[in-house]
Design goal:
By secondary structure, this protein is of the alpha+beta class. The strands form 3 sheets. Strands 1-5-6-4-3-2 form a 6-stranded mixed beta sheet, with helices on one face. The chain has a 3-stranded antiparallel beta sheet with strand order 7-9-10. Strands 8-11 form a two-stranded antiparallel ribbon. Strand 3 and strand 4 form a beta hairpin. The longest helix is centred in the C-terminal third of the chain and has 20 residues. The radius of gyration is 17 Å and the shape is globular. It starts with 8 loop residues before the first strand and ends with a helix.
């Protein structure tokens, strides 16, 4: 069961590097070697959405679906300099004055979002990426997953591996989800 009652604390202070924002959270690089990222909720009432997303993400990974390798929810200790990165979100970030905040830590995938790849790719290469996305989504549906939020922004394509990776699972469902996440 995944809960947020007592997440482990990452003891090292971090200066996060902003990567990308979305409607529910922001993604930051959180390791010096740049191989880990953390998704942090924008609002306190979205913490349960992040815990739920963490559970779906782990279930997808355990079912062999191509997603970033999930680590777990952590209470991240960020040094005070991180506040500077949030200046544009000053009114919306509920944790702005706190040095410890929740984050779902996972592997960082370096690839192109499918919608961005369309702008730079040859037609055949883009079509192959879309075909790979469709195959991965079919595999997920065959394992009981359902999503209303599969768009080209939520698919990363790694050209040198000819591979797609699905990301952002706030709106995904699975029949086993409720027994895994405690409200």
């Amino acid at each position: 069961m995944i809960t947020y009652d007592y997440p482990p604390l990452v003891e090292q202070d971090m200066v996060p590097k902003f990567i990308r924002g979305g409607s529910f959270g922001r993604v930051y690089q959180v390791s010096r070697c740049a191989d880990l990222v953390a998704k942090v909720p924008l609002l306190e009432d979205e913490l349960s959405t992040l815990v739920r997303e963490c559970a779906i993400h782990r279930m997808l990974f355990e079912n062999g679906i191509s997603v970033p390798q999930p680590k777990r929810m952590y209470a991240l200790r960020w040094d005070g300099r991180s506040k500077e990165l949030h200046r544009q979100d000053k009114d919306s970030l509920w944790y702005l004055d706190k040095n410890i905040l929740p984050g779902f830590v996972m592997e960082r995938i370096r690839g192109f979002r499918l919608n961005e790849f369309r702008e730079i790719a040859e037609v055949d290469e883009y079509d192959r990426a879309v075909e790979l996305r469709d195959l991965e989504l079919t595999r997920a549906r065959e394992r009981g997953f359902c999503s209303i939020d599969v768009c080209s922004e939520n698919v990363l394509y790694i050209p040198n591996q000819n591979k797609v990776v699905l990301i952002d699972f706030e709106c995904w469902e699975h029949p086993d989800l409720e027994r895994l996440v405690r409200k």
